[in-house]
Specification:
single chain, mainly alpha, Ufl1-like_C, coiled coil, transferase, UFM1 ligase activity
Length: 818
């Protein structure tokens, strides 16, 4: 055998040393191999090396790769390309083929790693783990230049075999370390007696471990503690319940919690949700309903059905007695208004009473029987009726205080005005204008004005200076005044709707009508009074408005009649006043006599006109404000004192009051023109028309006045009263003026007739005037004593005057009529 081997070696050496007779270049060899490949003599794949001088088959390349991996255990594809001298593309392709055929190999991140390599790595890791008790996967991945996930996937199947440890939260722990930490978790968990957030507990344990292990120790993740804790709970070593994964409630706390709730609820038949929150029960309603299905959840407490039975008995008694009940006085003090409202709605007696309209719930806790509320309403309505008839303003709103004061002042003045007698000179004024309005009526024309107050009642027609307006009769003016007051009526309705019973007045009445607060245990009566007032006030307001509406409807007709009558009176009186005013021009040259005549006209005719106007406007104002005003028995002649005129003027609203006060002040003046201006302003503000005296109407009035005076002179038997009438008649005949002169101005008036009468007539007039003055002087000087002779002288003087009366009458009537 050895001889044969030696022979073969010698032959091989000879063959190597022999020189060939034909030499081929590298190019010829390449072309030859290519030709053989094209002729399919070489029918397998050949791979070029990087140098291009060698060929290698894929099978050989795979064999070489497998050999390198088996030797090294972990090799990079780049290193394989350098070792085999083949392009990286072919190395990667064949490496994938090698890995797919051998399950013990893996291709990760350009490297081929065998399981034997991982076994050796695991052995190294185990040795290190036993030395330091714990190792972080991140640290191992950094050392091995692979990902942590790969390290974890490789170590997991080797735990307990090659690697003696436990993998938790990216950390490797030895069994001894795990047992030690498990003991810490068990002890800490069993020491908890109240609901605790486990994350806080894990933080405490982490700090404790860091203090034990020092700076070299690896931080333990909370998930490691949590996994250990979950295992302890599954094994029953720690008792309790989880909530939201991190909130732990020990069983000992839950038992104590339930015992506390059971004890309190059994003793009090209720428990508040705030108390449940203090016990650590975050959802008290669900907790209580699960333990006490028969219980009733309220807003702030949970009650036993016996609480409803107790309240139901008290409510049933209150309804039977026709009284009221504050449920909070029956329920425990811890109950709130919302709890009382809900428990009231659950009482059977309340439900049946509400359906039968036998009870009412006001506010949250007050229950009133319907009979009680009806009785209170009837009594308050009677109080309102009393105030309505008396015109009291205490039930008005505070915003209407000015209307209240006007109403009060108007009532006092209207009562006082009835005690005065009528004026003395209205008869002549009335008779003097009977024929005036019967003249031909003209078309109306006027301007519409609105006062600064903005009230619709001031939108009236004011007569212009056109002659057509001056010829209108009484009927036309009355209809215009009625039309002009429509806006005022609408505004008056609106004003009445605002005058309603105030809440303060109603609460005062209820405090008197519902006195049993202390018996019900109500500390603050204003609370229940406000609820009762809020319920009753709308009904009382509707009743009040209906009553006021009915009263106003009645007052509308009265207001219309009042304005018509006032317009008629003003038509007569104002025309007479203008007629008398023209006579004053005859005495403007005599200042003393002129002042006397002006004052006499202001105190007689002007005062009568002002009294009638103010009185009627005062009644109209009261009717507009919804007050009840009795019809005046003697409205033709009204006499007011200066104080009453001022009070009435001040009771008018806004600009009416200013113009009425100007009229009252004009009566105390010395000029009739001032009064006439103030009268026109007030009439214009009130929507009344004042006719202007024209020539035609003046002749008619003078004729009527002359005829009336003639009949009076003809029938007069008193010599003292005869003289002023004769003088007035003479002025009509001579000057066509209607003179109204007082007694002390008669002498001046007679003197002014000297140039207008013949001597005999003037002598008769002066003699009669002188005798009249002497008679009046004797009558004023008489003492009434029987021994006094003045009575004889008076009698003789009267006989003298009576004897001269026919001659005096003849001056104005003629001899046949005298």
């Amino acid at each position: 055998m050895d001889d044969e081997l030696l022979e073969l070696q010698r032959q091989f050496e000879f063959a190597q040393q022999a020189k060939s007779s034909i030499r081929l270049s590298e190019r010829n060899v390449v072309e030859l191999v290519q030709k053989l490949h094209d002729l399919r003599i070489i029918d397998f794949e050949l791979l070029h090396t990087v140098s291009g001088k060698e060929y290698i088959t894929p099978e050989q390349l795979r064999h070489e790769i497998a050999g390198v991996v088996k030797t090294l255990g972990r090799v990079s594809l780049i290193d394989l390309a350098d070792t085999t001298g083949v392009d990286l593309y072919h190395v990667e392709k064949q490496a994938q083929h090698v890995v797919s055929e051998d399950p013990r190999l893996m291709l990760i991140q350009g490297e081929i790693i065998s399981q034997s390599y991982w076994d050796s790595v695991a052995e190294e890791i185990n040795e290190r783990l036993q030395e330091c008790s714990q190792i972080a996967l991140a640290e191992l991945a950094a050392q091995l230049h692979v990902g942590s996930e790969l390290v974890a996937s490789v170590l997991e199947p080797r735990l307990g075999t090659i690697v003696k440890g436990r993998l938790e939260g990216g950390q490797l722990y030895t069994p001894a370390y795990v047992a030690r930490v498990s003991a810490m978790v068990r002890g800490a968990s069993r020491g908890i007696t109240v609901p605790t957030n486990l994350s806080v507990l894990w933080s405490t344990l982490q700090q404790l471990l860091q203090e034990i292990e020092g700076a070299t120790g690896v931080a333990v993740e909370g998930s490691f503690f949590q996994s250990l804790f979950n295992r302890l709970v599954r094994e029953g070593e720690v008792l309790g319940t989880f909530r939201a994964g991190v909130h732990w409630t020990p069983t000992v706390f839950a038992i104590a919690q339930k015992e506390c709730v059971d004890s309190f609820f059994s003793q009090n038949s209720l428990i508040g949700y705030d108390a449940m929150q203090k016990l650590g029960i975050s959802q008290p309603i669900q907790f209580l309903q699960s333990r006490y299905p028969e219980g009733i959840p309220l807003v702030t407490a949970f009650v036993h059905p016996s609480m409803i039975e107790m309240l139901d008995a008290a409510i049933e008694d209150a309804i039977e007695r026709g009284s009221w009940l504050d449920s909070l006085s029956v329920l425990p003090t811890s109950f709130g208004a919302q709890d009382a409202s809900k428990i009231l709605s659950l009482c059977p007696s309340v439900q049946s009473a509400l359906k039968a309209n036998k009870a009412l719930i006001m506010g949250d806790s007050y229950l009133f029987s319907s009979s009680f509320v009806k009785d209170v309403y009837d009594r308050v309505e009677k109080e309102m009726e009393t105030f309505s008839h008396s015109g009291s303003s205490t039930i008005m709103l505070s915003d209407d205080s000015h209307l209240v004061k006007e109403a009060k002042a108007g009532q006092e003045l209207s009562k006082s005005s009835e005690r005065f007698e009528t004026g003395s000179e209205s008869g002549n004024s009335k008779r003097g204008t009977e024929k005036g309005p019967k003249k031909k009526k003209g078309k109306s024309s006027g301007t519409k004005t609105v006062s600064a107050e903005g009230d619709s009642e001031n939108e009236d027609y004011i007569p212009t200076k056109a002659k057509k307006n001056q010829k209108k009769g009484k009927d036309t003016s009355s209809s215009q005044v009625a039309d002009s007051r429509k806006g005022a009526k609408k505004d008056s309705i609106k004003t009445q709707e605002e005058i309603v019973p105030s809440e303060e007045w109603l609460m005062q009445k209820l405090e008197i009508l519902v006195p049993d607060y202390e018996e019900q245990g109500v500390n603050d009566p204003q609370t229940i009074l406000r609820h009762l007032a809020d319920y009753l006030r709308p009904m009382l307001i509707n009743c009040w408005k209906e009553r006021r509406k009915a009263l106003f409807t009645e007052n509308v007709e009265k207001m219309k009649r009042l304005l018509d009558n006032l317009q008629r009176k003003l038509d007569e009186s104002f025309l007479n006043m203008q007629l008398y005013e023209k006579a004053l021009d005859l005495f403007e040259d005599d200042q003393s006599t002129s002042v006397t005549l002006h004052r006499h006209l202001l105190r007689t005719v002007a005062t009568s006109i002002a009294d009638i106007l103010l009185h009627n406007l005062d009644i109209h104002n009261k009717l507009k404000n919804g007050a009840q005003v009795e019809d005046s028995q003697n409205s033709e002649s009204i006499s007011l004192s200066p104080g009453e005129r001022t009070a009435i003027a001040k009771s008018f609203p806004g600009s009416h009051s200013k113009r009425a006060l100007a009229l009252v002040e004009a009566l105390e003046g010395k000029r009739v023109e001032t009064f006439m201006t103030a009268l026109r302003d007030l009439a214009e503000e009130s929507g009344l028309l004042l006719k202007k005296l024209d020539k035609k109407l003046e002749r008619t009035l003078l004729h009527s006045y002359r005829k009336d005076l003639t009949s009076q002179v003809s029938a007069e038997t008193d010599p003292v009263s005869l003289l002023p009438k004769v003088v007035s008649l003479l002025y009509i005949q001579v000057h066509s003026r209607a003179l109204q002169a007082p007694g002390r101005a008669i002498s001046v008036a007679v003197t002014r007739l000297k140039d207008k009468l013949d001597d005999s007539a003037y002598k008769i007039l002066t003699d009669f005037q002188t005798a009249t003055v002497m008679l009046l002087a004797l009558m004023s000087a008489a003492t009434g004593d029987e021994q006094d002779c003045s009575s004889d002288r008076i009698l003789s003087k009267k006989e003298l005057l009576e004897s001269q009366m026919p001659a005096l009458k003849a001056l104005v009537l003629g001899s046949s009529q005298a």
